[in-house]
Amino acid sequence: MNKTVIEYVLSRLNEIGIDDVFGVAGDYAFPIEDAVCESHTMRWIGNCNELNAAYAADGYARIKGVAALSTTFGVGELSALNGIAGSYAEYLPIFHLVGMPASGVQRNHRLVHHTLGNGDFDVFYQMSQHLSCAHAILTPENCIAETERLITTALHERRPVYLGFPSDYATMPVVTDRNIETISMHKSNGESLSAAITAILEKLSASSQACIIPGMLSHRLGLTDDVQAIIDKIGLPYATMFMDKAILSESNPSYMGIYNGKLMNPEVREFVESCDCVMGIGAVLTDFNSGGFTASILAENRINILADHVKVGSAVYPQVYMQDVLSQLKALAPSLNHQGIKARSLGIPIQGEQGKITAGYLYPRLEKMFQKHDIIVAETGTASMGLGFALLPEYAQFHNQTLWGSIGWATPAAFGAAIAAPDKRVILVTGEGSHQLTAQEISQFQRFGLKPIIFVLNNDGYLIERLLCKDPEAYYNDLPQWNYAQLPTALGCQDWYCQRVTTCIDLDSVIKTTESTGQAAYIEIVMDRYASSELAQKLGKSVGSLYSF
Questions:
Q1: What is the distance between the alpha carbons of residues 468 and 385, in angstroms, rounded to a whole number?
Q2: Which residue, 316, 311, 275, is CA-closest to 296?
Q3: What is the DSSP letter of 208?
Q4: Which residues pair with residue 94 across a beta bridge?
Q5: pLDDT band at 185 (very low <50, low <70, confident <90, very high)
Q6: What would the pLDDT profile of 298-309 be if each residue is shown by its tens digit?
Q7: Measured in Å, how far apart are the chain's first and last C-alpha atoms?
């Protein structure tokens, strides 16, 4: 007997590496949820709400490369859409499975719940098309062909896709079509590729001082091993920008540190901007990546290898795909052996007056606790801006939503990462303002037997907003005061190590205990109202360039 529509889709998603489906139960999505729960190879991961589920899927995809999310029609899918948009912006392939009213209900324009009451069943589907690289409403007849098209497109574009399932179609057997068209992958234009390679090699060979800036796109496309091989073959130093932190090892002697324009690491800026050849591989000059648009690399000195085209100086080579470019560079690139500078750690933790916890103590102390293979998830705002310059050990991962920047993302994303890699230590560092948006998701760690280490920085309000806005004391930056260290117990997290610390001595002691017990840990770190990292302070002083046009 043929598989049903939803069984076929789930089997194919499992084959490409998805073992878990995040979501919230909803009646139109019952066929999806039932199929997941009845599967012997996939697991249902229920979340506290659909937005959290989308964030968790985002975190899962950062670890495994792909993820799946299930929501119900209308109310569920719209709740998840902000999270989907973040995955779209940051190149993460999420398969969004949406349970829809039955085909007859839609055809007859019945006025049913979870609609706008006007008989329009296409409006939400059309909205999602702007935030997906491919989309389809699946039927028994088109299921196989459309599933293959959506998988191929998602894996190539590295962005979300939308799969709609009318509830009656979802449980019908697929109609096998022996004449399914083979979907061909995009190929580089041979002439354009050859010209791009020639231009890159000429630029590299003519350089007296060169460096490489590997970027997030190379990681999303699964090409970081190729990037490292090219760095090793040519013998060039490399730096990363904020969004691209730790996509390559920061313990490699060729690593110089974070390049953040004029705001941070002046020795890295001086070296990078004095190079007569800077080769970006998947790097994107966004506002926070470029130090508030203060990065200054002369156009004539740039090579930028992007997902589907290459720029060398002012010349653009279209229809050239990164994988093909890197493949040729591994074979043809010259050996230059240019020397760079040595990356620096954050140094010794420095206590504040009367033992208060300052940024100068907190971030160097956290840097000291990081270990090989850690997965570090840092929330948008001052938390990530402080941790971004920590020097990480080999194989440690750093995840931050630098471009989309949706506060609240980090807590569910850390949960998704822990589901994807339950054998690794997951460390979440978040501000209390962001945490308040999605804090209920910590209950899911307990539910699935996971043991994260969570640090909640309490600055008595939205600190990054205070630094960026006109009036730092405007009351829209104030927050209700929670008893954070009591949250895990209230949310069912039994046997967690929960503490509230206000001094450096206490923080040091708590970190040591956390490392020795192997328990899940939840630590509230109380800091002064304006105790912020150097980068956050400098961004506050650079709002003119950050918001310029």
A1: 14
A2: 275
A3: S
A4: 67
A5: confident
A6: 999 999 999 999
A7: 61
Residues 161-174: tens digit of each pLDDT: 999 999 999 999 99
List, for residues 485-509, the tens digit of each pLDDT value. Answer: 999 999 999 999 999 999 999 999 9
DSSP-derived pairing of the beta strands 497-501 and 521-526: parallel
- What are the two backbone dihedrals, phi and then psi, of residue 542, each rounded to the nearest 5 degrees? -120, 30
The per-residue pLDDT for 5 is 98
| Cα-based distances in Å from 12 to 17, 66, 68, 419 | 9, 12, 12, 20
Which pair of structure tokens corresponds to residue 255? 């690593």
For residue 102, count other CB atoms closer than 10 A to its CB.
Answer: 16
Closest CA to 422 of 453, 442, 454, 448: 448
Please tell me the distance from the alpha carbon of residue 28 to that of residue 281, in angstroms, as a whole number. 43
What SS3 class is residue 431? strand
Whole-model pTM above 0.85? yes
Evaluated on CA atoms 465, 466, 467, 468, the torsion sign reads positive
* CA pair distance 367, 504, nearest whole angstrom: 15
Residue 157 CA from chain centroid, whole number:
15
Amino acid (1-letter code) at residue 82: N
Q: What is the pLDDT of residue 180?
A: 66
